[in-house]
DNA sequence: ATGCCTGGACCATTCCTCAA
DNA sequence: TTGAGGAATGGTCCAGGCAT
């Protein structure tokens, strides 16, 4: 049995434990946590795993809000991990924001079941073997929010309060790829989504993800996905029934 | 014919790693 | 932290394919 609840703690909770697994996912503000021997702060974009019988306590600031999920069992990817805290994907983070609104609305059993199913589906997609360095969170947000803008490493490093060399190192240690590779990956994924889900032309999509030059975009897209933007569009449009 | 797109060649810039 | 050097990336130009 999986239940989801939205909770906003504002005061020190007493030490306690549960029979079920519990996941705590901040959607605003941060929490000070103590889980077993682990102690630290958890911020938006991270998830805490609390195993059955494990003593824990939270302390949240006034404005902090977070989603709590009680589960009988963890998905395999989480169960296999020894981590207490890991970074969640942007997709799951966005879904949590939707859930926040959903959980405060009217109670509808069907919708609730679908919501939980989707939550579990996204949970299974998490790679919980890493935790993104805090200094990079603003940088990642900035890049993702401004994919159409040019980003140079020097200014991104300043945002993280690191020297360019340190920034390179922290970035690769934390995410396993270089800054440029990360930016290109985000741009390509966004581009693919726009090509498949919108009627924007390849030119418009290229501009939307920061390429002034269509040729450069097409080349990069083909390298990344192994097929051209137009081929990608056609492949998916042939799978989608016509609406008119 | 026209517009849209792809991909090759070339070049400049920026990135990234590594040694000092 | 800095600097060097190779690698990667993006822009420009252009030729050519494809659909309308």
From TrEMBL:
Membrane-crossing segments per the record: none
One Gene Ontology molecular-function label: sequence-specific DNA binding
Matching PROSITE patterns: HTH_ARAC_FAMILY_1 (PS00041), HTH_ARAC_FAMILY_2 (PS01124)
Domain HTH araC/xylS-type: from-to ranges: 137-235
Family annotation (InterPro entries): AraC_XylS_family_regulators, Homeodomain-like_sf, HTH_AraC, HTH_AraC-typ_CS, RmlC-like_jellyroll, RmlC_Cupin_sf
Keywords assigned by UniProt, alphabetized: DNA-binding, Transcription, Transcription regulation
Keyword Transcription carried by entry: yes
Top-level taxonomic group: Bacteria
Annotated protein name in UniProt: Helix-turn-helix transcriptional regulator
């Amino acid at each position: 049995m999986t239940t989801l609840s939205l909770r906003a703690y504002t005061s020190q909770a007493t030490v306690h434990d549960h029979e079920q697994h519990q996941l705590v996912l901040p959607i605003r503000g941060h929490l000070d946590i103590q889980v077993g021997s682990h102690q630290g702060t958890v911020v938006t974009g991270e998830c805490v795993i609390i195993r059955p019988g494990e003593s824990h306590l939270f302390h949240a600031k006034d404005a902090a809000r977070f989603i709590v999920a009680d589960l009988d069992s963890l998905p395999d990817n989480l169960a296999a991990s020894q981590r207490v805290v890991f970074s969640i994907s942007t997709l799951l983070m966005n879904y949590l924001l939707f859930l926040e609104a959903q959980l405060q609305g009217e109670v509808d059993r069907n919708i609730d079941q679908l919501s939980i199913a989707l939550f579990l589906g996204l949970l299974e997609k998490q790679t919980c073997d890493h935790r993104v360095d805090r200094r990079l969170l603003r940088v990642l947000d900035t890049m993702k929010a401004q994919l159409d803008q040019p980003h140079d490493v020097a200014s991104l490093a300043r945002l993280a309060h690191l020297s360019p060399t340190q920034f390179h190192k922290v970035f690769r240690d934390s995410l396993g790829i270089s800054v440029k590779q990360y930016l290109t990956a985000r741009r390509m994924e966004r581009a693919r989504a726009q090509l498949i889900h919108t009627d924007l032309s390849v030119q418009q999509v290229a501009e939307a993800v920061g390429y002034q030059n269509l040729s450069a975009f097409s080349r990069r897209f083909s390298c990344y996905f192994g097929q051209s933007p137009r081929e990608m569009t056609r492949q998916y449009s042939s799978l989608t029934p016509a609406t008119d």
